[in-house]
Amino acid sequence: MHVPDGYLSPATCAVGYAVVVPFWAIAVARVKKFVGGRTVPLLAIFAAFTFAIMMFNVPVPGGTTAHGVGGTLTAIVLGPWAAVISTSVALILQALFFGDGGITAIGINCFNMGVLLPMSGYFGYKLIAGRTDMLSQRRVVAAAVGAYIGITVAAVAVGLQLGIQPHFWSTNGIPDYSPYDISTAVPAMLVSHLLGASFVEAAITALAIAYLQRSYPEILLRRQTRTPDMDITGTGMNPWIPAGGLAAIAVLAVFVGGLIKGGGGIGEWAGLDWSTVDKGDFGATILVSALVSVVVLPALFYGLRSRRAWRAPVMLFVGMLIWVPIGLIAPGGAFGEDATASPEAVSAAVAAKQAGDSTLFDALPDVNQECSCVPNNIEDVTYANSAILTGYQPPWAGDNDPAWKQNIGYQIAGFAGIGMVVVIAFAFFRLGKWLVPAAPPDWRSA
């Protein structure tokens, strides 16, 4: 869902910044007012969680990949304005340090995932939850549905933004930026989320809310006025029940949709060519993650013996990061995030296809196949290629290195990114307190 540089016109990017900046300003003021010192760590934790979950890409029907965001979860726990800040912090960090999402598209990405997603997700959650008790099971269902709605709405927005580009910005019939029109971009984004990422987002949100209800109800009740006789005993609902059910639905939907897209063949499942996956790379990636898990997870289990309630979320969080590189095994990439081939390579592939050999053309990135061209201005900004940890890899790990080395590099970059998110979230909050002055004292009590 991260829109890269070159896919949106400067005018579109400018509108993105113009729209999102007021939301940032309001969010800083609201968070300063409602998020106290004791909850600042929660803001940092949720920003780090958002960063981590966006690293995990899963293959979905349509020959593409998608990921969750976690924005609705943050909105439910800390409020929608806090979600604007935490998600935006993660997105800005990803763009500047990891080249994930364009620097010209930061405004658009932050609006889609940092404003539209949590706001629409939170609205859906409140609509379904109504006035029920914060610790009721209905809240878990409402959180799952809200999360599903939020990320789906954001996906449609991305599809529309990409889809209008060739209609408004083309030269001599060749797109200047994204070549995908609305009839291609919107269904691609919608289907990949309706049958994939949206279920993952719903499952993670339901799991987190049910867990907080059971183990840390005070976190969910922190924004609610309490009375001395209020019962804050957590619900007995097992958090794995809603998460497991939604995950099972997601797996079934993705698998069946993938079979349909691949014409019933496992080798072409989800419209992807799985024959291109090297078995040695697959095994090496699995082995590295398994070895790291064997060492790190038991150490965490023992180290958190005095913090039993934190064992499950911490181990789940760290385990997710350890196994994140599995998403790199799948062929293909996220829709609308392909790097273009060179004009010479595209010209040669088109000529070969016209001569009856489509091998070279089929190997081109989708962005080139869509228009049989290289969009005119798609490489105007190439910052992502020189980011500090490009593609979530340290400088010593590259695309041509063995899979195990890329796996380790991906994990290191992920943990480094989480550390940076936490530090920046704290700094952002302190900056907000300095920029937005406190309300003057009431003259009646001065």
Largest sheet: 2 strands, antiparallel
Shape: globular
User: Count the helices. How many?
Assistant: 16
**Helix content, binned percent:** 55-70%
Mean pLDDT: 83
- Termini Cα gap: 51 Å
Give the strand line-up of the largest sheet: 1-2
pLDDT < 50 stretches: 442-446
- As a whole number of angstroms, the C-alpha radius of gyration is 23 Å
Instruction: State which percent range the strand residues make up.
Output: under 5%
Output the helix-strand order: HHEEHHHHHEEHHHHHHHHH
How many beta strands in the DSSP annotation? 4
What class would the helix/strand composition place it in?
mainly alpha
How are the secondary structure elements laid out?
Layout: H1 10-34, H2 40-55, E1 58-60, E2 64-66, H3 71-78, H4 80-98, H5 106-129, H6 137-163, H7 165-168, E3 170-171, E4 174-175, H8 182-215, H9 217-220, H10 240-261, H11 279-303, H12 308-323, H13 343-354, H14 359-362, H15 366-371, H16 403-435
Antiparallel strand pairs: 1-2, 3-4
Structure description:
There is one protein chain. The chain has 446 residues and is an all-alpha fold. Helices cover 63% and strands 2% of the residues. It contains 16 helices and four strands. The chain has helices at 10-34, 40-55, 71-78, 80-98, 106-129, 137-163, 165-168, 182-215, 217-220, 240-261, 279-303, 308-323, 343-354, 359-362, 366-371, 403-435; strands at residues 58-60, 64-66, 170-171, 174-175. The strands form two sheets. A two-stranded antiparallel ribbon has the order 1-2. Strands 3-4 form a two-stranded antiparallel ribbon. The longest helix has 34 residues, at 182-215. The termini are far apart. Residues 442-446 have low confidence and may be disordered.
